[in-house]
Design the sequence.
């Protein structure tokens, strides 16, 4: 084997190992102790998205002023986030206080994601079966109309024209009032 081929093979193996390496980075989501319900749901949805993509997520609760004396509120928020994403992640680093911040790290859990996906697919399958059974029962209960009889349609109602020759709708879509005009004969 010549030296050039050896160098080429080692370069190819190094390139292949870099390609197989996962590029999971750490994403950060910041919360506040007085966060609203809508903001909480939006941020937690983003955390779920990051975990689904395979990234670790660092969740930070930022305290200011007197909020620092009520760290139980931050802990409650972190526990709510962990509960909502428990089907996607596991807690890698438990909540801890770091200066004015409380930090927790979540890591994607492949086993939990697979179990959640399996449960979801079973649930969807059961719903589809139930819907099919209800459709079948509804079709059996309703009498079928004979296709040999022609379907008769009601004649369309003709609009009453205003006496001035204008169309019933004045062009803007609003119905014009029907005005009866009488002429006097002398």
Sequence:
């Amino acid at each position: 084997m010549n030296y050039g081929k050896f160098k080429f093979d080692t370069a190819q193996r190094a390139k292949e190992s870099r390609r197989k390496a996962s590029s999971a980075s750490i994403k950060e989501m910041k919360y506040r102790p007085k966060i609203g319900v809508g903001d909480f749901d939006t941020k937690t949805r983003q955390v779920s998205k990051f975990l689904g993509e395979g990234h670790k997520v660092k969740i930070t609760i930022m305290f200011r002023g007197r909020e620092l004396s009520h760290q139980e509120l931050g802990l409650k928020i972190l526990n709510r986030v962990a509960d909502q994403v428990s089907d996607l992640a596991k807690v890698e680093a438990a909540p801890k206080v770091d200066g004015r911040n409380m930090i927790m790290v979540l890591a994607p859990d492949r086993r939990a994601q697979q179990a959640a996906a399996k449960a979801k697919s079973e649930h969807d399958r059961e719903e589809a079966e139930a819907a099919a059974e209800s459709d079948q029962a509804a079709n059996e209960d309703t009498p079928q109309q004979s296709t040999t009889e022609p379907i008769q349609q009601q004649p369309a109602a003709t609009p009453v024209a205003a006496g001035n020759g204008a169309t019933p709708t004045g062009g803007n879509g609003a119905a014009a009032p029907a005005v009866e005009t009488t002429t006097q004969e002398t």
User: Anything to note?
Assistant: The longest helix spans residues 110-141. The chain has a mean pLDDT of 81. The beta strands are 26-31, 56-62, 89-98, 101-108.
